[in-house]
């Protein structure tokens, strides 16, 4: 009888386990859920010893019920991914996009100077006039190409900066 009582007491004293699954969604992103899924992995989640933490207000609750463990894990994962992306934008993507604009301008200016220097070597005859016309057409094509390139680079910079500011970052960058 004592043995049976000890076994029953040890079963009730054993830690509670919650079963959750790590599953890929349609976008290829990993989602934590309580239902099994195809291609997913089973995760064993145990409550920590001690008191349970108070529920955070930024964790979604579905239909007035407390958020499930899967919802809390997904919310923390999303917040972590947003923070990492904000840091990547601030430290690398936005500065690199800004530098690409400056490098593109310098490259275009160097090419324009090289074309201008060619025009100074033309003779004052029909062949020289034809050559000058050819250089002028090349300069016009370069100006068009550089303008298109700068607009593309500027659009990329503006898009990255907007995204960074939506994540409350990039305070030191100007539009």
TrEMBL record:
Family annotation (InterPro entries): DUF4124
Keyword RNA-binding applies: no
Region (Disordered): 47-79
Protein name: DUF4124 domain-containing protein
Keyword hit for GTP-binding: no
UniProt biased composition (Basic and acidic residues): 68-79
Signal peptide: 1-18
Keywords assigned: Signal
Domain called DUF4124: residue spans: 8-59
